[in-house]
Design brief:
The protein has 273 residues and is of the alpha/beta class. It is 38% helix and 21% strand. The strands form two sheets. It has a five-stranded mixed β-sheet with strand order 2-1-3-10-4, with helices on both faces. The chain has a five-stranded mixed β-sheet with strand order 7-6-8-5-9. Strand 1 (39-45), helix 2 (49-63) and strand 2 form a beta-alpha-beta unit. It is elongated.
Length: 273
Amino acid sequence: MMKCIKYFLCWGVAALLSACGSPAGESAKGETQSEPPVKITVATAANLQFAMEELVQEFEDQTQIKAETVVSSSGKLTAQILEGAPYDLLVSANMKYPNYLIEQNEAAGGVKVYAYGTLVAWSLSKTNLEVSPEYLLGDDVVKVAIANPRNAPYGEQAIRYFEHYGVLDEVEPKLVYGESIAQTNQYIISKAVDVGLTAKSVVLSPEMKGKGYWLELPGDSYSPIEQGVVITRYGSTHHSKESLTFFTFLFSEAARAIFEKYGYNLPEQASTQ
C-alpha cells in the first residue's frame, strides 16, 4: 500500500512540474535564456540614405548592437520625435533641428557636426549642366526638382542657390518639390523632371553612381550644409549606452572614411565632446 502511495505522489509531482514548465529564465535543458539584443532606431536625413546603410553595417560589425533606420526629411523626423516617436538619435541634414530638440527638452547632451553636405545638379537626360542656373531658364527645361525647403535643409539651400544668382522668380514656376531628398531623387530617376538639385552623396552611392549627368554646385552659392547628430530624450532614457555608442561611432575613423566615400566634407576635429 505504501508503495502505491509513493508512486502516485511521485507521479503527481512530475505532472505538476510538467504542467508548470521549466523555471523562469531557463530552457527545457536547463540553459538560461539570453535577453533579446538591444536595437536602436536612428532617424536619418534622406541625403544619408545610402551612406547610412554602410555606416549601420560597420557599426553592427564593430559593436554587435543592432540599429535600424527611419529615413525622411529632417523636419518631418523632428516633428515625429516631438510627437513621441521612439527614435534614439536624430542624424540631421542641418543643425537647426537637433538644436530645436534641445530647446524643447527632447534631446540629451550636445549637438555635433559630423559632416558637411554638398549640392549637385543631376539629370538623366540633360548634358548641358552649368555651374550657374541660367540654363534652367531655357525652354528645353520644363521641370526642376528640389526638396521641400520647409522640411529639407537641402531644399532650403537650393532656394539660396537660386537667390544667389538672382533667378528664383524666373525658375520658381518650374519647381517641383519632393518631401525629402529621397523623393526628389525619385523624380530625377524616373525622368518626371528634367533636372534636380540633390545631395552629392546620392550620385556617388553604388546604387546611383554612373547614372545620368551631374555637376557639383559652387560652395559659395549657398550656405554651408552643416549636418548634426543628437541623442534624443527617448534614446537617453531607454538605450543610453547604445545610443552614445552610435553617436561616438559617427566620429570614428571608420565612419569618417565612409562619409568621405560619399562626398561629404568632414569637420577638422572628430570629437564627441
